[in-house]
Design brief:
Strand content: 15-25%
Number of strands: 9
Helix content: 25-40%
Shape: globular
Strand order of the largest sheet: 6-7-8-9
Radius of gyration: 22 Å
């Protein structure tokens, strides 16, 4: 895969001090990288190990640059790598699918955190009224309760989420900007943005579906 819009670092075992796997997500679907994308909504996901033990090799076949080398990836040849791959996907991802008859027509991909279920991607091949909300919100909430998670994070943007009980919440991120001039410009913008976001949250909260205690 090429550069991905979303990457997630995770630990496949609790006792590890640092992440040992990385997930990649791209908002597209295709049979192979670099060819025409499918005409329907979809995602492509993959996972890789950060410190694999498997080792492959490349052998030059001859002196000519036109001769392709012999490449042996030897991917997942080490037992530790195989066990890591088996551990990584089931515990970190939740894929919720919808079927009509024998065919899958829609899906929602979620990432499982320590105390939160993160909704990330949705795609469908057929349009059905309210199916998006059923898979992305209601089923996600049910799953989070069943797994004992504290909350569901439905992602940024979308005023339509208010009616489903997803209220606006302030989030945080950390960045270091080396250039002093650029850093000052970003800082000035963020100060104004924080004030605007606080105002938006105040207004949008008024449209939430929850009754206020008297």
């Amino acid at each position: 895969l090429g550069a991905s819009q979303v990457c997630v670092f995770a630990r496949s075992m609790d006792h590890l001090e640092t992440p040992d796997i990385q997930f990649h997500f791209q908002p597209l679907s295709a049979d192979k990288p670099g060819i025409k994308m499918h005409p329907f909504s979809g995602i492509t996901s993959s996972v890789c190990q950060l410190r694999p033990e498997s080792r492959g090799h490349i052998h030059i076949k001859g002196p000519s640059a036109d001769m392709h080398p012999r490449i042996v990836p030897n991917y997942l040849s080490a037992t530790a790598d195989q066990e890591c791959a088996v551990r990584s996907m089931p515990d970190a991802c939740l894929l919720i699918l919808a079927k009509r008859g024998d065919a899958y027509i829609a899906g929602a991909l979620n990432m499982i955190g320590g105390d939160c279920l993160y909704g990330r991607y949705w795609g469908c091949t057929e349009h059905h009224r309210c199916l998006h909300f059923e898979l992305c919100y209601y089923q996600a909430i049910d799953a989070a309760i069943a797994m004992g998670l504290d909350r569901v994070e439905a992602g940024a943007q979308g005023d339509h989420k208010l009616a489903r009980g997803y209220m606006p919440t302030v989030t945080h991120s950390l960045h270091w900007i080396g250039d002093p001039g650029f850093r000052k410009a970003v800082e000035s913008y963020l100060e104004a943005e924080r004030r605007a976001i606080d105002q938006d949250i105040e207004v949008l909260t008024e449209y939430g579906p929850f009754k206020r205690a008297q």
